[in-house]
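Team,

Forwarding the record for the chain on the shared tracking sheet. I've put the sequence and predicted structure together so nobody has to dig through attachments.
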Amino acid sequence: CNYSVPAGSRGTLVVRDILGTSILTQELEGGKGKATIRTENLTGGIYFCTLLVDGKISQTKKLIVKH
């Protein structure tokens, strides 16, 4: 997932399953970057990746895992 967090802000990537249960939380550094989500430990299905900037939702994307 590509991301952009304004300098001086705190970014957090949260991955949730279809029921809304948090599966993974990853802190992100300010600026632009790319977060890698390892899916080998996830069961196949639909997940949602949400980028939080200073605790507020910036964007949400769907992630489909197929093995």
